[in-house]
Hints:
Blueprint: H1 2-6, H2 8-24, H3 50-73, H4 78-99, H5 113-137, H6 144-170, H7 174-197
Helix pairs in contact: 2-3, 2-7, 3-4, 4-5, 5-6, 5-7, 6-7
Amino acid sequence: xxxxxxxxxxxxxxxxxxxxxxxxxxxxxxxxxxxxxxxxxxxxxxxxxxxxxxxxxxxxxxxxxxxxxxxxxxxxxxxxxxxxxxxxxxxxxxxxxxxxxxxxxxxxxxxxxxxxxxxxxxxxxxxxxxxxxxxxxxxxxxxxxxxxxxxxxxxxxxxxxxxxxxxxxxxxxxxxxxxxxxxxxxxxxxxxxxxxxx
Length: 198
């Protein structure tokens, strides 16, 4: 069973790309560059029910299972346990983001309570997958290549998060920068997962 759980991180890294693509096919004129991933599950969207069903809920489970695997198999090593906790938190917040949709208008000046919960959960997701690679970066337990790759993924995530805030101000292509920012986090998860199963 533990061997199966070890691959949950790899599966999640692939699943998220496929899931978003599939959901977008059922959303007429959806723009990956201009619209957020969460708009697929927003109030009133054509894929409001479909998107969390094929993305948030299974992905949340995969994150939680992988985090649980790290916690139970590396109990003597606190840094890895802490990474496992961050992955579990990421998974739980993925569920929360699916259960509490964002508003149809991403730029609304008066977001609904559901949208506020969604936004805060998304922020926690972002932070959890910054803390986790930071732990790897500064832990001598891990190989030098993995530590450098983790640091690179953090820099990529932070850079495109900054670009995302600017794109939001300009109402230009926030979807593109959201995908690049989160893409570096998912890339880190994939690299780290491959290290774990190697």
